[in-house]
Specification:
By secondary structure, the chain is α+β, with helices and mostly antiparallel strands. Helix content is 35%, strand content 20%. The protein folds into two domains: 6-23 and 271-363, no CATH class; 47-265, no CATH class. Strand 7 and strand 8 (203-204) form a beta hairpin. The longest helix has 29 residues, at 219-247.
Amino acid sequence: MNAPLKKLSELAGVVFDGKRTGYVPPKKLRISEKLKLHPQAKKNIDPVTFEVVRHALWNVNEEHGATIQRLSGSPVAMYALDLNPSILTEDAEFVYFGPYMQYMSGVTDTQVKWTLENRADNPGIHDGDMFLANDPWVGAAHQMDVMLLCPVFWKGELFCWVTNCLHQYDIGGITPGSFCPSARDAFDEGILIPPVKIVEKNEIRRDIEEVYLRSSRKPSAVALDFRAQLAGNMTAKDRVLALIGRYGADTIKGVMKKIIDDGERAFLKKLALLPDGIWRDRTYVECCRPGDRQVHRVMLTLKKQGAGLVFENEGTDPGSSTTRWAARCATWSSIRRRARSTAPTSPPPCRPRRCSAWRSRSTRPTTCSRK
């Protein structure tokens, strides 16, 4: 639980698979041949069509979030806006995520990529399926932020994904509400669910839903939130398919790709205005858990060289408690959210595999430590 900090160079041979360690997507996803993707995209799209479709896709995402708000009945969704919808390409590149809690969506692509790698063969990814997930090792800030992933198919091929994330009232753990400051590890904080097929052929799998709800002290509230998420995905899926039917699949995919490319260029253009250099920030956290009276140092170093950004947390105090640590994906989401705010673009403004942009020099078991 209090393992020493380690640099990435000291972790040779460690597989970051989302099971015993945080998931880090490979440069090329290993997807079963059983799943057929739709990568075809039109390259030359007239400006008027591009703007019309671009705004239409944005409105799909807005309606997605509004649907969850209207149906949830939860003040967490209605007033706190602790939710966020997303649209991603077939291989899990962000097109849009919503204007709600952007921290949630920062790792939606990680969840989808893990699903593509680990679920395409067995049990399979098919039209009419949806996957429920809240595992911080795969991609979640904490267990209460539950994602519902929905593949969108066109003529038998996976065209894109629509997804959402919503904070739940209670998913178990040692404290009602599932905020557990006394937690020793992830197993004290509530049920852990890697992406599991909860909707199959457009029907809710009762067995999976009952396992999910059984962990909660408020099963009726969680069940209603799940149906709100389900309705949000179904609404967004129908709207995307309507756009494909009107403009053609290759045109819609071409617009998606151009949105991503434009966002990346805008971010890199703004990044180029900054001089190369090193910036450091130090803060202190008190009382990480009940009974803790210590002060713990938190360090962040940012190195900028050319088009590359390197984030390091070396110098952070290991401390005496794990309750203030976050899984790899939560750190990654925080960085992306801040980077998103630096450029006037709707998707995350940088493809991490194209830029040498994000690297954490040290890792550690987290709030959700499985040790």
